[in-house]
């Protein structure tokens, strides 16, 4: 039998003065009450209660056991109360990991969350490496590429697409690609965590998947490094829309072959499980989802928009 339940039953027998009264308080049969007390006595190898036809009284051992077990049960109830209170209101430290390209969108969410929940502190790590949410001890990871571990919980915050682009200075040195096949003859700046490796994927106007094998003189895990190299005229960049929106609007980066759309991705909130998720994590994810919904108008423009300035201004 469950030991804690037996302790509770034993305490009710003592406080009620008998098995029948305890059974009524516990909504349990008299036989079951007796079995729980017997289980404790068998475990201890000692009699806890003197039983007569009229009443039940504690033995000397039973009195000492009751006093100690009552304190234990009271402390457990207090621990349950404290845990429930902590769970009801976000508090404690929230450990997050994200990439540099997402910081600009995450910053206002973090600021709002800290204002809403002053009992929470945030430990935010920014880096490009693929971290392990469990082994590295993070509550939540916010990334723009899918996690390699399919066992994790993934909540989509907002969809986005790449845009193929380059600096005007690059087009002054090299002829612009006329077809997707032409891309293979250009210097392509490659992201180390692009899910399809050196096979850049696209879709035509009918949604037919297309791809081209690319090569270039740099592969890096830093999206910001690729952006700066592209702005410097060093090659073609398959850029996340949310990273280069300002560059496109300013004309320092121009779209290439805009008639071809890239596959859809999403910025995701990634965490290890959905059962018993702490209030601080759940509240932060819900706020993320609400605020990132506001970015969907330009992160994933319609195919006909051409990724131009008009689309960015919406």
Outline of this structure?
The protein contains 11 helices and 13 strands. The chain has helices at residues 3-16, 19-26, 30-44, 60-88, 100-116, 168-173, 223-231, 241-250, 279-292, 296-299, 309-312, and strands at 49-51, 56-58, 92-98, 120-126, 140-143, 153-166, 188-191, 199-203, 209-213, 219-220, 236-240, 254-255, 264-271.
Describe this structure in words.
The chain is an alpha/beta fold. It has 2 domains: 3-88, Winged helix-like DNA-binding domain superfamily/Winged helix DNA-binding domain (Arc Repressor Mutant, subunit A, Orthogonal Bundle); 92-312, D-Maltodextrin-Binding Protein, domain 2, CATH 3.40.190. Helices cover 41% and strands 22% of the residues. The chain is built from 11 helices and 13 strands. The chain has helices at residues 3-16, 19-26, 30-44, 60-88, 100-116, 168-173, 223-231, 241-250, 279-292, 296-299, 309-312, and strands at residues 49-51, 56-58, 92-98, 120-126, 140-143, 153-166, 188-191, 199-203, 209-213, 219-220, 236-240, 254-255, 264-271. Strands 3, 4, 5, 6, 7, 10, 11, 12 and 13 form a 9-stranded mixed β-sheet that branches. A hairpin with a 4-residue loop joins strand 1 and strand 2 (56-58). Helix 1 (3-16) crosses helix 4 and helix 5 (100-116) crosses helix 9 (279-292). The protein is rod-shaped, with a radius of gyration of 32 Å. The termini are far apart. Residues 301-314 have low confidence and may be disordered.
